[in-house]
Amino acid sequence: MTWGDTIYLLPEIVISIGACLLLIAPVMRRGGGVVRASGAPSGGGARTAKWTMLAILVLTAVAVIASSGLVADVAQTKTFASMFALDSFAIFFKLLFIATMAMLVLLSDDYLAASRYSAWEYYSLLSFALCGMMFMVSGVHLAAIYIGLELLSLSSYILAGYFKNELKSTEAAMKYFVLGTVSSAILLYGISLIYGVTGTLNLMRIADAMSTLVTNDALMFGIMLLGAGLCFKIAAAPFHVWTPDVYEGAPTPITAFLSTASKSAAFAIFARIFYVGMHHFRLDWQVVLAIIAALSMIIGNLAAITQDNIKRMLAYSSIGHAGYVLLGIISVSEMGLYGVLVYSVVYVFATLGIWATVLMLSKHEYAGEQVSDFEGLHRRAPLWAFAMIIFLLSLGGIPPTAGFIGKYFLFYAAVGAGFGWLAIVAVLMSAVSMFFYFRIVMAMYLRDGDGQAEVVSSGGLKLVAAICLVVTLLFGILPGPLVEQAKISGGWVAKRVAANNAQR
Known about the structure:
Elements: H1 10-28, H2 43-68, H3 88-113, H4 119-138, H5 142-160, H6 167-198, H7 203-210, H8 217-234, H9 243-249, H10 252-259, H11 261-277, H12 282-304, H13 310-331, H14 334-360, H15 377-380, H16 382-396, H17 402-416, H18 420-446, H19 459-477, H20 480-489, H21 491-503
Helix pairs in contact: 1-2, 1-4, 2-3, 2-4, 3-4, 3-10, 3-11, 3-14, 3-19, 3-20, 4-5, 4-11, 5-6, 5-11, 6-8, 6-9, 8-11, 8-12, 9-10, 9-13, 10-11, 10-14, 11-13, 11-14, 12-13, 12-18, 13-14, 13-17, 13-18, 14-16, 14-17, 14-19, 14-20, 16-18, 16-19, 17-18, 17-19
């Protein structure tokens, strides 16, 4: 690699250096931010770690914006021509990841200040996870994508069990690690089969090799294994069994991370791999993914109805949303691709807004988790109760929220691709989802409760909730800028799909 190549990797270099600095900072300081012998938290260290993390994210964002000036259709150096792409698709998701991480830092502030655990290590792990996600979305080579995915996964396993003295957190981490390792092995085996048939791991070259094949059982099996591994990462049924337990047991800010940034990164590589590399065999994998999408929407939404724990309810809800996004994947069309990009944004902001509201209810490590904790919230915090309604309506796809725009693109793409029956299932399950979403609304407005859940109106939580509320309403009323940006960002991938269609 030459020095000139570093500009293409500048954002990843910045966040990697930042992650390492965050990891060694407690050693260089005298006890700041580290658990003291008495077990009391060091609040000042947590605050310093927060501002250091935010500064690193700002520098990373500047590096991404600076590198975006190199984007034409797809800008690659000779060194990285077969593994790493700096295109508008990658830039879009990298900026989304950075914005999500910044809001997660604000969500975690009070949580860490009141805990017994090191904020420096926590933010370091988030930085390594961000680095993995950024490599993933720029990967045009299955090996590069796999390495980025494993960096994200390893960081996520540790973060899920970050409260190591809490049984629920440790149990969540163990379940996540065991099942995640199995899914990684399945994904890697699928990659090996694809390589064995095509002789390459570069997505464009895989597509070219597939264009000369009529059918191949080993290749199809490899694609199915690859898809199964990715379905685990997005928590699609029947690969979803880890989700409710991990969401419930992980610290609430980490649950927010798993349900937003981590999930959107998996959506991004799912789209890139199957749109660019697997296009020629789509008639074989489209039906399988359609069945998985239907199962995800049905199982996720029906199972959520019976949940009284907010974390488990949103875990099952996220399974249903994975099914919605798969509508955009199986359509293999420009509309479907734009739907994936738009829905990734609106889903992230609506979900983060919900988690910000949950975290407002108490400073305790496992509080604000029951539907009953929301009783009477409209009297104690009327603005945030209203914001919660908007976020839930967005997840349900009700206008004039941004969620309606995202679902419109996905449903329209499914119908255009000949999967009208799947769009009907999606509409019906969206209606079902409103049933359990409005259980929370009823608790907030129709029940008085005993006021036992304290409302913590910290600056960071209020800022995140306010940003998410504005974005959810703004893109619902004026979706044009977001849709236009999605079309620009998905331009190169869409061109590749058009080229593949011309070869068929």
